[in-house]
Amino acid sequence: MNVTKGNIVRLLTVYVMTAFLAACTGGGGIVGTGFQEAVVRGEVTGLGKGVTVNGIEFVRSSDPGVSETPIVLAFENVSTGNEDALRIGMIVDVSGSYDPASGKGSYTSIVYSPELRGPLDNGSVDAAAGTFTVLGRTIQAGAATVFDGIADMNELAGRQNQGLELEVSGYLDAQGRTQASRVALKTAGFTSGLVQIKGAITDVRSGFFSIGGVSVATSNATFVNMSAANLSAGLVVEVRGLLSGLVVSNARIELKSSTSGASTGETIRIKGVAAGPLSGNSFVMAGPDGTLTVTTSGAVFLKGKSPADASIVVAGARLEVEGKVQADGTLAARQVEAETGRTVGLAGDLTAVDVSSGTLVLNNVHVRTDKGTSFRDNRKPQPVANLTLSALAPGDHLRVEGFLDENGQVFASQVQRFDSTQVIILEGPVTSVDPAGNSLVILGVTVTTRPGADMIRGLTRYGDFASLVVQVAPESTVVKAKGTIEGSIFSASSLEIEQ
């Protein structure tokens, strides 16, 4: 499949309609089940034997026509054959084929282009709210955001006036913010140079337009999928060019849309974040390239792979939608699926590490690492510059952010070592609840509650365990427990529903 930067379909999964018709009629191409040609757009969640995107494990295609450098880093204009160039949390376009039944696939190309690359705006970090701005664009970080090269929002706040250059992957939501899947520190002391910004145009004037907090010069610009005459407020564009002061020049300007190049009648599969519940038979979802209106009159609702109803569509819910693009740009959904809880967070003392298998044990949870895992040492006064798994030892105080993979194993996106503290955290999807025993199970660990333990969901505080757990859906709801470990039992001083 020949994919160029000008025609990459920037969706999670796009099925070409001709192939779709062939599958239905029994003609050439896709017939029934088996491998399907597709462009898959989503987050990198694993690097090992290949590249895992949206739960599909892709290895490089053995077809003789495939380039020896099929991985493209678009911002740097670099092509490579090294999968180590990719990182957990990057949103990529994978061209190739895969088998839905096995979750295996092969790729002919992988293209990565960040949503934002540029300087952190001075004084813009609100660590409590999880927000900051880059080039005037608001970024929202959350529990599932992977930090690379920087510990967390607190460190970002402490360094926000150092001219940090950041790279951000994520989704454009209905409020114009970028919901971050990955935030990476690239350099410090950035004042000018190549930047990239995606978002809606706010103002057009002679020779310039505004996006975020910068002006883009249209002279000497290269336009993709549009011309200068098409520029108007509200259009979503991706701009790459040279920043000097608050002006971007010598820009490459590419038009984006919620369906990003898919034509009327094509069947697409896209992942995003719901802006709110259904209104009538439709809702708005934030996708990689802007908001999309989804109609649901003919849709089936799923939670994971189990039947559900329209109540899964709530503000902030991560959804995957399959349907047909309509002439008015909306998506007529055939299926709406809610992503079940996969976020994992751990903090505590390391009890075991096995370098040969790439695993560690923290809070009685077995954690898998691979070459995509980021390691960072935050101990004072002399942290290890290039921390690795082999440098860890039982007793080290660690913080782990990660997720459950498709096999239910805990995978670490990031492992950080800190000076010893008394904070013990166990965060993940709840697998079972025992209301009578005031306990629940998180990541295979039994969590009991102490008398007077805090029970929290957002701004709501519950008076007892029973009031909290009616809000918990096993295999879906993520709960953060803080407390202590005694043998195999986690004794919680607080329980907080995260999603």
Beta content comes to: over 45%
- Number of discrete helical segments: 3
Taking pLDDT < 50 over at least 5 consecutive residues as the criterion, the unreliable ranges are 1-33
Largest sheet properties: 15 strands, mixed
What would you call the structural class? mainly beta
Descriptive labels:
single chain, 499 residues, mainly beta, 15-stranded mixed β-sheet, 12-stranded mixed β-sheet, 3 helices, 4% helix, 51% strand, globular, disordered N terminus
What is the element layout, followed by pairings?
Layout lengths: L12 E3 L1 H9 L10 E12 L3 E3 L2 E5 L10 E3 L4 E3 L10 E9 L4 E9 L3 E4 L11 E4 L2 E4 L5 E3 L4 H6 L6 E8 L5 E10 L5 E13 L2 E4 L2 E4 L4 E3 L11 E9 L2 E10 L10 E8 L7 E6 L2 E6 L4 E4 L2 E2 L10 E8 L5 E8 L4 E12 L4 E4 L2 E4 L5 E4 L19 E8 L5 E9 L6 E10 L4 E4 L2 E13 L2 E3 L2 H5 L8 E9 L2 E9 L2
Parallel strand pairs: 4-8, 5-8, 11-14, 12-14, 17-20, 18-20, 23-27, 24-27, 30-33, 31-33, 36-39
Antiparallel strand pairs: 1-2, 1-21, 2-3, 2-7, 3-4, 5-6, 7-8, 9-13, 9-15, 10-11, 13-14, 15-16, 15-19, 16-17, 19-20, 21-22, 21-26, 22-23, 24-25, 26-27, 28-29, 28-32, 28-34, 29-30, 32-33, 34-35, 34-38, 35-36, 36-37, 38-39
